[in-house]
Please model this.
Amino acid sequence: MFDWKWEFAWEILPRLVSATGNTLLAAGAGYGIALVLGLALAVAQRTQYRVLTFAVREIVEFVRSTPLLLQIFFVFYVGPQFGIRLSPWTSGMIAIGVHYACYLSEVYRGGIDSVPKGQWEAATALNMTTVQKYRRVIIPQAIPPALSGMGNYLVGIFKDTPMLSVIGVAELIHTANAIGSEHYRFLEPFTMVGIIFLAISLPAAGLIRLFEGRVRLKLGLK
Amino acid sequence: MQDMSGFPLELTGENKPMVSFRKVRKSYGSLTVLDDLDLDVSAGEMVSIIGPSGSGKTTVLRMLMTLEEINGGVIYVDGKPLTHMEKNGVLVPANERYLHSRRSDIGMCFQHFNLFPHMTALENCMEGPVQVLGLSKAEARDRSEELLEMVGMIAKKDQHPSRLSGGQQQRVAIARALAMRPKVMLFDEVTSALDPEVIGEVTNVIRQLVSEHNLTMLMVTHQMGFALDISDRVCFFYGGKIEEQGRPADLFGNPQRERTQQFLSAVKEAV
Model:
């Protein structure tokens, strides 16, 4: 039946573990960019500057309506024609970070919209500046309802890192494929990659739910 | 562009009002909410604003708190324009920077309290002094604890708003506004969202403010008895204008205008 070779599996495990590190790094760095940039995009859509609001909304819609794979290719292969030469890692981080920032900006926007108008008014009555209003009053209340959406995209970005293999980032799929080509054996590497993804995604989703509950508790939001 | 030549750059004189509305107009589209409002409030005066809903009374407070822009006229606070600023010798609409420099003179309490739910009662009170006034945490804590003591909420200072009753939340909100040491306090229907049995705890705090502090106060209220008790003056608003105003005993005891009479008798019947 299955021609599963344990010996081979043990032999390639170290390489896959090291590639897992790369995958986690890519997902983490991409998510970091997305978290910060996403918030900036969400806030930019709420300013009184109509041109900025309009431009940001169009960019977000554009990015969300085109495939991530295309965006990765674009940054890596088209960038050099405009004099922007980036390593596969940097290109990948930018593409995946910007892509998810656009999705996260919508999650943030929903969270910000859910803060009652009276909170803005109370902050104005205390003479807070716009930055203080966001930092001290609005964002702390906007994050808890956004947490589950943010968590979903963390798992999403992790599962999308294999797309970076197309420009040569040595993440899990890229490594498994390389191992397969070298040894003419694909069963073990790809099966193991699947198990590794599962072993990280499932607990991550649970941890996010746990974290969400703790944040709500800490902020007194029940 | 309206002609600003009739409005002085500054109000001077010994008896200059603390708050002065001069020909203030507010409209939403074609709906005029306030029509050429003139209203002066002296320093230390307590003015109650009553009237049917839609008469523009809450808008008066919201404009003064700069939560609503005005469409005409000028509002002065402590002699200086609030809604406008001077530019080359003429008044132009204030920008956000100017508003920020003037807004600390005014504090406001809202119908629905609007406490920050992620902060405790004490943190709510400390927030403005620390973030906006730049006080040290220790100073802000002292000031806030003193005020929470005054409103009878010191025992609950470490509770989040979700653990407090409406009356308790409103008392914390009053302490929070006072912690900014405003010259003018605004109370916008602060008892309207409260259960009847806790209204007293909030009105008592306001009563205490009136008797012990020399604050200028404007209060929109539906509680005629309370307005009668503590106000220096009562303004009856109708259709975006002050229909009648006067000392509370006169206005409630012997209203001159027909609309005032109608409103007061309708209120009496409801009680």
About this structure: Chain B has a mean pLDDT of 93.
